[in-house]
UniProtKB/TrEMBL annotation, chain A:
Residues 131-325 form the ATP-grasp domain. GO terms for biological process: glutamine metabolic process; pyrimidine nucleotide biosynthetic process. This is Carbamoylphosphate synthase large subunit. Coiled coil: none annotated. It catalyses: hydrogencarbonate + NH4(+) + 2 ATP = carbamoyl phosphate + 2 ADP + phosphate + 2 H(+). The keyword Manganese applies.
From TrEMBL, chain B:
It is an enzyme of class 6 (ligase). Residues 2-132 form the Carbamoyl-phosphate synthase small subunit N-terminal domain. The lineage of its organism: Bacteria, Bacillati, Bacillota, Bacilli, Lactobacillales. It comes from Secundilactobacillus odoratitofui DSM 19909 = JCM 15043. Belongs to the CarA family. Small subunit of the glutamine-dependent carbamoyl phosphate synthetase (CPSase). CPSase catalyzes the formation of carbamoyl phosphate from the ammonia moiety of glutamine, carbonate, and phosphate donated by ATP, constituting the first step of 2 biosynthetic pathways, one leading to arginine and/or urea and the other to pyrimidine nucleotides. The small subunit (glutamine amidotransferase) binds and cleaves glutamine to supply the large subunit with the substrate ammonia. The active site is at 333. This is Carbamoyl phosphate synthase small chain.
Amino acid sequence: MDNTIQKILIIGGGPTEVGHETELDAACLQVIQAFKKLGIRPLLIDNNPFSAALESVQPTNMFIQAITVENVQRIIEREQPDAILPTVGGVLAISVIQELQENGVLADNGVQTLGIPSDALMDINNPDRLNRILSEAGAPVIATETVGTLDEAVNVAAQIGYPVIVKPIAPRIDTNRILCDNEAELISAVTRGFAWSRFKQCVIEQSIVGYKEVELVSIRDVMGTQVLVAGLENIDPIGIHSGDSMVVTPTLTLSNAEYQELRDAAFAINNQFNFTGVVHTHFALHASQDRFYVTKVTPYNDRGTSLAAVATGYPIAYVAANLYLNQKITDVRLPEIYHFKQTALLEPSLDHVVVRIPIWPFEDIPNADQHLGTVMKSVGSTIGVGRSMEEAILKALRSSQFSPQDELPSMSDLSDTQIISQLIHPLSSRILVLIEALRRGYQVDELNELTKIDPFYFVKLNHILTIEEQIRQQPMDVTALQQGRYYGFGDGMIARIWHTDIDTVRALGQSNHILPTYKGIEPSAGELLHSPTSYYSTFEFENESEQISDQSVLVLGRGGNQLGPNASADYFTTEMLKQLRKSGYKTIIMNTNPNAGSLSATASDKQIIDPVQLGDIMNVIEIEHPVKIFVPGNRHYLTRELRNRHYPVSVLPPDQEKRTHLETNHAEIGLDLFVTPGHIVPILVSDLQSDQGLATTLDQITLMRAPASIDETQLNRLLAHAKEYLAEHKRTGMVQLLYTNDTTNQLQFAGIRPTRLTTIAYLNKVTGINWVRMLVRQALGEIREDLIATLPVDIHSTRRSQVRGTFPFKQLQLPDQLGLTTQEVGARISFESLPELIDEPDNK
Amino acid sequence: MAQRFLILEDGSAYPGIGFGAGATTTGEIVFNTSMLGYQEIITNQIYHNQLIVFSQPIVGSIGIAHDGYESILPTTKGVVVRDVTAISKNRQRSLSLDKFLKQHNIPGISGIDTRHLIRKLQQTGTIKGSIVDVADDHAFDQLHATVLTNQQVAQVATPRPYPNPNQGYNVVVIDFGLKHGILRQLSKRDCNVTVLPWQATAQDIINLDPDGVILSTGPGSPLDLPQSVLEMIQTIQQRMPLFAIGLGHELFALANGSEVSPLKLAHHGANHPIRKIITNEIIYAMEGQEFVVNPDSVNRDRLITTYVDLIDGSIQGLRHRDYPAFSVQFFPDGAPGPNDSVDLFDEFMEIMGTRE
């Protein structure tokens, strides 16, 4: 191991956006845990208020600043870290470190880059240079040409012949590839590409649209030892961004020979670049011609590596953190939860199937173009784990829907022309349209022709329809229920097909012993006996999940990332889990978001990866008998249904049911408070604004700034009013009182609402008090009133801070528009800790 | 598809859905944790007399491919899976795994909790089982009464020599139940191959004047083969380069005075890290073994241990100190499995090249 490294600057992921969500922060958290265990001091720069990683470093090591070359440079010069880590910050981190390498800052300050050698850093997002290195490694690549002007681009494209692919060189954002069928599209793509490229250059290459897209996730140490962690197979062909495609692991439609060829190529590339840590390699395979190309090499954590980690139980980010420090993989010591020796060296072998389905922002942003293409549009994803393809895909689908009642939307309204059109030009409803086409009798070969999706998947979808029909034909039939559950149908779905309620379905299952059996998610496929922490359900012979403790709590995760308050839900959930464990409970989390930090093996005592739907929740409750069930944020339907069944449900923050009481629908000043029966703790008073200035409605308030633009007298008046109001209207937990500032500069009471999750994250960072933990302790009855009185919160603080929501409009290729709270994809926070309030430059 | 049962020697019975042939068969239950290559696994002759439990949840998803045969006439006793899919990808779109198994009279059973079976086998060790139509006393009686042959090699190895002509080195392959991956690797290296039956004597081999000899993989126990095989190895290793794989490796160890004993539980999978001792490199390879060389019995004056499995500590490779002879327990030809150790064939070529 390299002992010269004592202090490492980690570049965080920044605000969530289309292209990355919580997976970077989740990886960052694991890396920090590993570094700390090795006695290394991690410094972290990030301006994502929903970062759980920020909570895990000492305040002196935490730099809440936008990730820009200038800010990182300033930290390097002041803190003199020994090394800088580019592998948990996505493309932005790569781009920033590239610039710091070019301008000599890293060399001048003696900072080495970890994981990705300096040369490699310059090559990986420059398609031209990448291709050269790949060729040297013996890997097949597509011929490409670099262009710097529109004229050149038009000429090159004409030579290659349309369709062509445009890729910006050294982009600032995760752009992937843009497919162009003609000159007009080319001009538009190249223009955009130039704007995204740091060098105003693009690469033009021959289109490989329709090829099968396969991704491998591998680990490499300084000795050159490599472990193939997982193969990911995109159900959708090249032409649809892999982030927007349905993805399956393990690969199911590759022959051994094909797979080994890719493995050899990935390893050769890793050796050529001399990477250490984790690498995600993308390939395009021709379906029948035994030909493949390497399309992308990402030697850092991303959605692919997080999927691989959750699917296999292999702690990728943790192991990689050790390898960055030139530790040998044979020497990596894992946390105790990994029971057998050599976990890091075992190539994961799976006995289950994992399907990832994207989650779209279109419900909240209806004016966006819903066509899928080479530019990513999804904002999150959700996985289904099963022992069959049918089960995995149905579970993923059930989790990807917004309906709380566990039903899939019908596509029966589509005309045949629409179906054909959507098969060829897929929309975000892709999977449902595929199912509908099969329902209408389209043949597998025909669909394979139209969509370039492997016939295997149509055979499986068809089988789902057969099972569905069987269920429909035989209401309340035991065999039909058994088959339905075996293949992944939820109790809610079955109840709907049978026109009955979920309890009737469950009673039928109970009395006929059709009970869930939980299976461990671990990398040995059952060969090496031990008890993993992560489970999924199926309906087979052996159940491996026993009640973990008679003092357990179940936390219902929020599922896949969506726009709106969900952006902060994973942070909230992770912090809840920490406090619950600290309070002495065994923690169980149910979640389906492969990118969630709250799902990482160290965040809770048991992870159940199943749809967070009523039937599945009750299955868990029947085994675990938790003393409490926590619902972060609120899910009205689930909460109501669970309460109706007398389960001990706590919603956090509490009082969500009391909802909002409003005098008027706009506000300019917010006063956030923590309320206990004996105390009212004022936390922060702030200006409330929209992204573009004045907010005329509450759902436009996506920016908070402190201190508020009111004077001391006004503040005291607000505090007095709050006290008076809350004496009359009982509330607990956290609330935000809203005020308007009328023309005469008189503050008027506008209403009261539960403090938003996103706001709580901001308040944590502003006050240095973890309010999520306070809420948990309050719900557990652990809060002592006398200590509440001594909380070090200064409502009169003049420290300037701001949090503002970020929106995905540009990535969805929409003109800038006024963002609503329901459209927030992430947020950024800033403090006046530097000479001036530095906000992130808009470089999208 | 009808309901059938997998029954085990310990009295347990698992209902499932039959596929492939409708035959009732009995064999040892072994499991394979490879995630790929069901066709290669099923056609590997090492599974003669055995029922293969697949940990990969879905088999059949790529049909049967012309380049996926490890033998043309598979002799496994059965295929036990969670899920089987009928896909055909050959030119006629007419050969699914189901049909293939029917053609070879091999029964399959799906809908089995294979993860449970694998976990259970850790406790029981290798035991016998049958795929049957009815799990009644009669079926269990039959199961208990069945004595599995120990003449597996004689049953699967070629009875007659045959050539695989090419222009390169003359290589004799002794067939103990040869997997085709070995032939493929030799073919890639232009070797002029003669495959000889397992009873070939040293003189038979010497008469062909080969540049080197390969002892192939095969089924069953090395202890069940006659002494004459060991004598053949003892003579040949002194005369020419020798490369032994799988069962061949076990025989090579025996011929050089080591002991070989049965594992409590067979190991079949491609995910164990294997240390190449001389370089400290870690590689992955398909392992398929019921027997293991006892480390304490290895005569250090004659043999050097070259590879060791880091999960179970088993010896995975040996080399003779005095002769150009070496062996590996795992399958360096992949098929299925990683190609990490395919360079062993190159090493064999080199050794043949340096021979006077």
